[in-house]
Write a structure and sequence with these properties.
By secondary structure, this protein is an all-alpha fold. It is built from 1 helix and no strands. The relative contact order is 0.04. The mean pLDDT is 89.
Length: 106
């Protein structure tokens, strides 16, 4: 019977010794896998936490943007109202000048 020998197993090892060596290697690999799995799960938890934090920050940014847009729109309406008032005043001034010119001419 041929046994495939790990690089860590001496070629002279008997089947029982090979079994012990390979069992130890398997246990070490399982322990490393479990440790790495826990590290990756912890990394995932940190990324999820970061994503939740970024989502909360984005909600604040969206709210700020909505408020800024509303303020901009309100300012635009006030500017339009002021322009309309200025136009009304110009018309009034024009009428007053015409009336004054008519009175002076009469």
């Amino acid at each position: 019977v041929d046994y495939e020998v790990s690089r860590d197993c001496p070629a002279w090892a008997q089947p029982a010794e090979l079994h012990g060596i390979l069992t130890a290697q398997l246990q070490a690999a399982r322990a490393n896998f479990a440790r790495r799995e826990e590290e990756l799960l912890a990394d995932c938890d940190r990324w999820r936490s970061l994503a939740r934090s970024l989502e909360a920050d984005m909600a604040v940014v969206r709210q700020d943007a909505a408020e800024a847009e509303a303020a901009f729109d309100a300012e635009g309406r006030r500017a339009e109202e002021a322009e309309a008032e200025v136009e009304e005043l110009r018309l009034e001034i024009g009428r007053a000048r015409r009336e004054a010119a008519e009175r002076l001419a009469a």
